[in-house]
Amino acid sequence: MKAFRTYIMLCAGTGCVSNGVFKIKEVLEQELEKHSLQDEVAIVMTGCNGFCAQGPLMVVKPEGIFYQFLTPECIPHLVEEHFLKGRPVKDLMYVPPEKEEVIPELHAIPFFKDQRLIAMRNRGMINPDSIEEYIARDGYRALSKAVGSMKPEEVIKEISDSGLRGRGGAGFPTGRKWESRRKDPRTPKYVVCNADEGDPGAFMDRSIVEADPHSIIEGMAVGAYAVGASMGYVYLRMEYPLAVKRMQYAIEQAKEYGLLGQDILGSGFDFDMQIFKGAGAFVCGETTALVASIEGKPPEPRQRPPRTTLWDKPVVINNVETWANVPVIINLGAKWFSEIGTETSKGTKVFSLAGNVNNAGLVEVPMGITLREIVYDIGGGIPKGNEFKAVQTGGPSGGVIPASLLDLSVDYEQLAQAGSMMGSGGMIVMDDATCMVDVARYFVEFTNDESCGKCTPCREGSRALLEILNRLCRGEGKEGDIELLQELGESVRDASLCGLGQSLPNPVLSSLEHFRDEYEEHLNNHRCPAGVCKALITFNIDKDVCTGCRLCAKKCPQDAITGEAKKPHEIDHDKCIKCGVCIDVCKFEAVSVT
Amino acid sequence: MAKIKPEDLDKITEKIKRTMLLREGEHRAKIIVHMGTCGIAAGARKVMGAFMALTDQEQTKDVILTTSSCAGLCSREPMATVEIRGQTPVKYVDLDEEKAKKVFSDHVLGGKVVEEYALATGSERVG
Q1: Could you tell me the CATH number of the domain that includes residue B46?
Q2: Portion 241-270 of A in contact with B at CB < 8 A
Q3: Which domain holds residue B71?
Q4: What angle do CA A128, A131, A135 make, to 5 degrees?
Q5: Within 13 A of A38's CA, how many CA atoms are on the CB side?
Q6: For B1-127, where are the alpha helices, taking DSSP H only?
Q7: Cβ contact (<8 Å) for B22 and A258?
C-alpha cells in the first residue's frame, strides 16, 4: 500500500463542517495539484478533534503541527510555505491566551497535553468511514477476544471489576446492569445505545459517534454477547444528521466484514444492529421514555421498579461513552482501567467545556482531576480578563459550583455532594458578567418546555418555578418568593416521577445556596448586579468621558441617543432596548450599565 | 468483502500499518529534506521523490520523511539531515538521486554514516 510522506488530518466534525471545511478541502486539493504534491501529501478527513472553538483545524502528521482558524484564502500560502518549502506557517498556529509565542505542536498545547484519551482514543487519527483504519488501531480485537475465548460471565466480570459506571449521568455500575439482564431468562434480549444527548451545550456523544462509530458497534457487540442479546439499537437524535450518516455507513461496513450479522468471526454468535432516529425531545434521553419511543409510543417515562423492558423483553441501555469504553477494558483489562480515577469513579470522563472559557471544546480527563485544572490548565482560563464566577456541570439537571469549590475533585460523589452532578458531561463556565438568577431561569425554561406533562410535580412545579423566576428578573418579585423557590424546588425534586423532574430544580437550589445575595438584590432592590436582566438595568453615558463623536447615535437601532456633535450625548431610557450596541462601538468606554 | 475471521484482523492491520505508523510519527529514523526556494531550485524535490520511492520499495515502517525550510548553507543544496533515534543528526550536502540511494541504504537502513557526502554531524546551537 502506497504511503505518503505527509498526512493532513483535516477535522470534519460537525463544528468544522459548518465552518466550511469541505471548501477548504477543495482548495487544498487544487493547490496540492498545482505544486504536484498530490502523490506526496495525503488529505484525511477525520472526526471531531475536540478543540472546537479553534476550528476549522488541521493537524499535519507526522510532525504533529496544529493549525487553527483555517479559511480557504489562507490555503494557497499554507501549501506553498509548509508543504512545498517546508516552512510551517506561524500565523495559523495556536497562541495561548495572553501570550505571544506560538505553540506549533499539538502535543505541547496545554488543551491537548493534559487530557487522557480512552473513549476518544481514535479522535483525529482515523477516517471514520474506514473500518480498516479502526481495525489497524486495535479495533475489533475485544470482540474477537470475547466471542473467541471468553465466556459471557467472564466478560461481565471484567466490566464489573473495572468499576465502569454509566456515563449518561446516573453513574449506575455497568457490570451490575449487565449481570441482571443476563440472569433474566426471557428472550430475545436487546442492547441499546442512548445517543439522544439532549443537554444544551453537550456534544461529547455526537463527537464520538461522528469520529469513531465502530467503537460503539464493537462495544455493543461485546455487551450483547455478554448478556445474550441478538439485536441492538442506536437511538440517535435526528438533530445529528452527520452522526446518523456516519453510524449508518459504519454499520453497513461492519455487516460487510461479517462483524455484525450471523456467526460473527466464526464463533456462532449472531448480532445485528439498527439506527432508530429520535425526533428531538429532551425527555427521550430518559431510559423509560426512550424505550417508549422505540416502541412507537409517546415518550412518557414510567415508574421504576419494575425494571425497564423493551417489548417486555430484557434490555441493556447504556450511553455512547459507556459503550466506547467497553472494547478498551476488554483489551487492556479491568485492573488497568481501575487504576485510573478515584476510589468510587474509575476511568476517564469526557466533558464539553463551553461558556466563558478560552479553550472551548471536548476534553477527556481522568476522574479525580480538579475543576480548577480543567477550567484553567486545560481551558486556559476566562477570556477578556473577567473573573470566574461559577461552573455549571451536568447540563440543565446540574447545579452551579462557585469559585470556593474549584479545588473539588471531579467524581460522581463529590459533584453530587456539592449540589450538582456529573450528568452527561456538560461543563459551562460562567464569568462575573453572568446573572445567576437568569441562569436558573434559562435552565428551568428549558426543562419546563421539555417536561412530558405526565406527573404533576414536574408539569405544574416547573411552571410555577419559572413564573417566580421570570418575575424576579423583571423586578416584580414578591415577599416570600425566595422561600417559595426553595420549598417548591425541594418538592419537585422529591416527588417527580422521572429524572427530568427530579433534577430540574438543581440549578435553582444550587444557585440559591451559593448566590442567595443575587436573588435578594433582584427581589428587594430591583437590581441585577451582573447587569444582565434587561428590566433591571439602565444604560447611561458618562458626560465626563463622552466626546460627542456620534458613533453610538448612528448605530443605535432605536435612535435612542441624542446630542450635538462634540458635546456629551444622552440615552432616552424610554426608547432604549438595552441591546448593547452602543457599548460595543464606543471607543472611549463612556457607556455604562447600572 | 468476504466475512472475516479472527486472523484477518491482524492481516488487515499489517496491510495498512505503514500508513498508520507514518501518521502517528513513531519512527526509528527521520529524514529531513531541506526545501526552501534555494533547495527546490537546486533539485530538492527530486531528492524527496527518490527517498519516497526508496521507502516504498523497502516497505519501511519506521522511517519518516519530513521537510524543513532552508537550512542556511544555500550553496550546497540539495541537503538532507538524517536523524536516527539515539544518535547525532548528520547533514548531507550536494545530494542527487543516486547519492540519496546510498545514504538510504548505508545510513538509514544500515546505520553507517556515508562520510564522503556528509558535511557535519550534530545540530546548530540556538540562542
Answers
A1: 3.40.30.10
A2: 256-259, 261, 263, 265-266
A3: 26-121
A4: 110
A5: 11
A6: 6-24, 36-42, 44-58, 97-102
A7: no
Candidates B3, B24, B31: best to mutate against A (most CBs of A within 10 A) is B3
Whether the CB-CB separation of B80 and B99 falls below 8 Å is answered with no
For CA atoms B60, B63, B68, B72, give the dihedral sign. Answer: negative
Give the type of residue at A165.
R
| Tens-digit pLDDT profile for residues A419-466 | 888 988 999 999 999 999 999 999 999 999 999 999 999 999 999 999
pLDDT for res A114: 87
Q: Is the CB of A272 inside 8 Å of chain B's CB atoms?
A: no
> What tens digit of pLDDT does each residue of A519-534 get?
999 999 999 999 899 8
**Could you tell me if B19 lies within 8 Å of chain A, comparing CB atoms?**
yes
pLDDT at residue number A202: 87
* A144–B6 CB contact, under 8 Å: yes
Is B67 touching A (CB cutoff 8 A)?
yes
- Of B5, B60, B67, B74, which to mutate for an interface test with A (greatest number of A Cβ within 10 Å)? B67
pLDDT tens profile A273-288: 999 999 878 999 999 9
pLDDT band at A175 (very low <50, low <70, confident <90, very high): very high
Q: Is the pLDDT of residue A46 over 70?
A: yes
Residue pair A117/A106 in contact by the 8 Å Cβ criterion? no
Give B-chain residues touching A265 at CB under 8 angstroms: 4-6
Q: Is B106 inside any structural domain?
A: yes
- The pLDDT score that the predictor gives to residue A93 is 95
Report the percent of chain B where pLDDT is more than 90: 45
Dist. CA A64–CA A57, nearest whole Å: 13
Give yes or no for residue A226 having a pLDDT over 90.
Answer: yes
Q: Which residues of A touch B39 (CB under 8 A)?
A: 85-86
Tell me what ipTM this predicted complex has: 0.82
Q: What is the pLDDT of residue B1?
A: 67
- Asked whether the beta carbons of A28 and A75 are under 8 A apart, the reply is yes
Question: Is B114 part of any domain?
Answer: yes
In a domain, B20, yes or no: no
Which tens digit of pLDDT belongs to each residue from A343-381?
A: 999 999 999 999 999 999 999 999 999 999 999 999 999
pLDDT band at B127 (very low <50, low <70, confident <90, very high): low
Cell of A484: 417559595
Residues of A in contact with B18 (CB under 8 A): 1, 3
The answer to whether residue B98 is domain-embedded is yes
Tally the domains of chain B.
1
* Domains, chain A, with CATH or none: 6-111 (3.40.30.10), 131-338 (3.40.50.11540), 348-431 (3.10.20.600), 436-524 (1.20.1440.230), 538-593 (3.30.70.20)
Distances in Å between the Cα of A126 and the Cα atoms of A76, A129, A136, A475, A489 are 25, 8, 10, 54, 46
The β-bridge partners of A392 are A400, A428
Using CB atoms and an 8 Å cut-off, which of residues 45-74 of chain A contact chain B?
61-64
What is the model's pTM?
0.89
| pLDDT reported for residue A170 | 87
Contact A86 B36 (CB under 8 A): yes
What single DSSP character describes residue B2?
A: P
| Interface contact flag, B19 A3, Cβ < 8 Å | yes
